[in-house]
């Protein structure tokens, strides 16, 4: 193969030699031409240096890109781990709150010692029939505390059979009856009574929103399970 | 994967096989990336600085390996050597930024730096940077042509089509002119030809 005539073909010729893309004969001819032509030898040397530099630049570019990809992956992984950590913590808190709301009994006003229920009534001169109603109410509370919900239902239903109850006392008994129904498994009755209260605007017996919500949640949860 | 030793990483980095080089670099990154990030982030830098430094240090280490300036000693862990490189380079960057001298002094005391001239460690990096600087003097289309021809080994016909050139001859002519230009730039900036 003769030395090409145009400069661009000579550059290509040298590239073929440096890329090892020549046959043995072509290589021999090329090397003979280099020995004869100092200009070609110089160009060969320059092109070899330029190609080495290009190789170094391209390799560095590729390795740098690879490191960038690794860094990007690490950043993503860090975010993922952080999200997972916070989501896990949120789940634990949510489950704890939910289990507390689903298992604990609602707290009613003065439920430990419901003096307000009998306020204004002089126990020393109280009529025996009225005393029996109050006693039944407290017996119902005690049954709820002891987990005897069926007995509690009986107690509060008996209390509510009485017609001349003050509205505060009636509402207190009805709220307790909702819980007694709920815990004894009479879910539809509990739900019905709860709805009646939920719409009440001028109730005297104030049950906090958290406790109302707790009762509602427990009713819905028990209904979903049943 | 965990069985990669320092010697394996070095051997891989020196390999002609791109896959091995890439795997070794990944190993090296896993070993040292976090450590370098910590050096930067606990000494006045941010995550972005840390990422830049990780790139520089790992690529400089490779240059040192290729040029034979790094000699592996069995009793010195690779991560220790890279830790020192990262520290020295970070000090250099902080100095260049005209950072608070008190902070630099504190950093020196805390890390007990003993290298006489931290800049020497980065000679290889500067050489690579010079190559990159020379290459960046070419226009984007010239850079792309050389990248496709010499790195991706694409034929001139395909390059001509991709770069919207009239013909293969036009691509060949442009390659020739670009190589002439590059040789001129190398003579001018590196003086090695």
TrEMBL record, chain A:
InterPro entries, alphabetized: TPR-like_helical_dom_sf
Keywords recorded for this protein, A-Z: Membrane, Transmembrane, Transmembrane helix
What's this protein's name?
Tetratricopeptide repeat protein
Q: Which residues cross the membrane?
A: 83-108
Q: Which organism is it from?
A: Ravibacter arvi
